């Protein structure tokens, strides 16, 4: 290609895409250029796979007002978008999902979430009538545990919790099929969970017994005692 052709090629655009109606998905970054995506449909297909959308992504919306993006050229560098199938755009505070969750917001599974308390003061969650625990990713000693916050007043189905874990953990192996204690024993129901405990999200692979707590929980953490039961 000639130097003139390179100069005329549109620059790459960096965008972040969220999952429609999902308050636990903090967005996935994409680099959009003409060489990688020839059509808008090709980009939507890549988004479908990358964000593990339950249905094929067919629409993109702006996160604040829900304006539909019609073609690849409408994407703006450094902007955020919400991926959806044929369902309606669902209004959430997408741009702040990585920093806070609004009290009383329900996720796509209908489970109510609570406002985040301080990591150094997890006791503050109790005042909001929240149940919380920390979850590691199986075999991953690079990522810190994520917090799972649930309302005590909302009934919880175990399949629903596993679906929530699948979204938050984003395991390379795919969906979270089971939750284990740090000693490797599998947890089979909500009644077995300990408030403030530590667990490991596991996919189809075997549980990997590693020093998750010792390596990934800060030494000055307010709660330095792992829960095994």
UniProtKB/TrEMBL annotation:
Residues 13-95, 135-213 form the Doublecortin domain. Pfam families: DCX. Gene3D superfamilies: Doublecortin domain. Keywords: Repeat. One of its GO terms (cellular component) is microtubule. PANTHER family: DOUBLECORTIN DOMAIN CONTAINING 2, DOUBLECORTIN DOMAIN-CONTAINING PROTEIN 2B. This is DCD2B protein. The lineage of its organism: Eukaryota, Metazoa, Chordata, Craniata, Vertebrata.
């Amino acid at each position: 290609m000639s130097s003139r052709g390179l100069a005329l090629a549109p620059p790459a655009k960096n965008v972040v895409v969220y999952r429609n109606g999902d308050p636990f998905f903090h967005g996935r970054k994409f680099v959009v250029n003409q060489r990688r995506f020839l059509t808008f449909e090709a980009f939507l297909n890549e988004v479908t796979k990358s964000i593990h959308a339950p249905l094929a992504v067919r629409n993109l919306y702006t996160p604040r007002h829900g304006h539909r993006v019609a073609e690849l050229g409408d994407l703006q560098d450094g902007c955020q978008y919400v991926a959806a199938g044929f369902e309606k755009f669902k209004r959430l505070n997408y741009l702040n999902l990585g920093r806070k969750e609004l009290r009383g917001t329900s996720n796509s599974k209908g489970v109510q979430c609570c406002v985040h308390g301080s990591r150094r003061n997890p006791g503050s969650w109790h005042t909001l009538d929240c149940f919380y625990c920390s979850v590691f990713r199986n075999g991953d000693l690079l990522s810190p545990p994520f917090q799972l916050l649930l309302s005590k007043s909302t009934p919880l189905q175990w399949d629903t919790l596993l679906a929530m874990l699948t979204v938050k953990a984003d395991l390379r192996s795919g969906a979270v099929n089971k939750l284990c204690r740090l000693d490797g024993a599998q947890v089979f129901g909500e009644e077995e969970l300990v408030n403030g405990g530590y667990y490991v999200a596991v996919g189809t692979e075997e549980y990997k017994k590693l020093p998750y707590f010792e390596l990934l929980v800060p030494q000055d953490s307010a709660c330095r005692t792992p829960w095994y039961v």
